[in-house]
Amino acid sequence: MKIIAYTALRYGADYLGSAIRSVIDSIDEYHILYALEPSHGHWTDAPCPETRDELHAIAESAAGNKLRWHEDRWHHEGLQRDSIYQYAPDADVILVLDADEIWPEHINFGIIGKEFSERNIRFPMIHFWRSFHKAFLHDPAYPVRIILPKNAAGDWTATNNPPIAHFGYAQRPAIVEYKWKIHGHLNEYRRDCNWFQDVYLSNRQTDCHPVGSEYWNAEDVNPADYLPAFMLNHPFANMEVIE
Question: Where do the structural domains in the chain lie, given as residue ranges?
Answer without folding.
Answer: 3-233
